[in-house]
Design a protein that fits this description.
Blueprint: E1 4-17, E2 20-33, E3 37-41, H1 48-55, E4 63-67, E5 82-85, H2 97-108, H3 114-124, H4 140-152, E6 158-162, H5 170-187, E7 190-195, H6 198-201, E8 206-211, E9 214-219
Helix pairs in contact: 2-3, 2-4, 3-4
């Protein structure tokens, strides 16, 4: 039986705004196990990013329960056990590309040669030639791929990617998802990708659909639209 990494039960997240209350997640229950390849699909504002934030413990639920039985202490989830590639690149402006990718390894302080590991991750995404550039010298698509390399570099148990192909053309986006799936297979990592692109979702084994905070699980990929 596959190892259970994340378990969510009746999870809800509400935000109070000037115009009233917004329900971002509504009674969501699901599990992520080692080896999963999950696409979370749905339009903007459907709750995809909020769900990823909950899984990564970047936000707290208004109601319900979330646990990480296969990942250890909640205080030690990132970047050791969960790698997260944000929808926006969020690179540190004063650091080079390679130094940005090294950051999670330096936080963990358990890697003999962080620079070597960073260059390996960049090379897998065909970005090694950009190692010494600053973020301001990158295109939007390049910066987004560097963010993915940074999420991959620690070889986490769970890799979360929020619209990782949003600034890429279709061919480059398909290639990136293929590389992410290949990396996940090689490192026995669970992979969860939020996307609005059905072509990207079809590369995953499972699709979850978000709609107004509600989660529909295990739809067959060919039905995603």
């Amino acid at each position: 039986m596959a190892e259970l990494l994340v378990q969510m039960s009746a999870l809800s997240r509400r935000f109070s705004l000037a115009g009233g209350e917004v329900v971002a997640l509504d009674d969501v229950s699901c599990e992520i196990v080692r080896g999963d390849r999950i696409a979370i699909v749905g339009p903007s504002g459907s709750g995809k990013s909020t769900l990823l934030a909950m899984i990564a413990k970047l936000d707290e639920p208004s109601n319900g329960h979330i646990a990480w039985p296969g990942l250890g202490s909640p205080a030690d989830l990132r970047p050791r056990h969960i790698g997260l590639a944000f929808q926006t690149p969020s690179l540190i402006a004063a650091l080079t590309v390679a130094e940005n990718v090294e950051v999670p390894l330096l936080v963990l302080d358990g890697t003999d040669d962080p620079r070597k590991e960073a260059l390996i991750a960049l090379d897998r995404l065909q970005l090694a030639h950009l190692a010494d550039r600053l973020p301001e010298e990158l295109s939007g698509g390049q910066a987004q791929r560097v963010t993915v390399a940074r999420a991959m570099v620690t070889r986490p148990d769970l890799l979360l990617a929020d619209e990782p192909t949003g600034q890429l053309d279709q061919s480059t986006g398909q290639s990136l998802i293929h590389l992410l799936a290949e990396h996940a297979e090689m490192t026995n990592t669970a992979l969860v990708i939020a996307t609005h692109d059905p072509a990207i979702a079809r590369q995953m084994k499972t699709a979850w659909r978000m709609d107004h905070g509600k989660l529909e699980m295990n739809r067959r990929l060919r039905a995603v639209s």
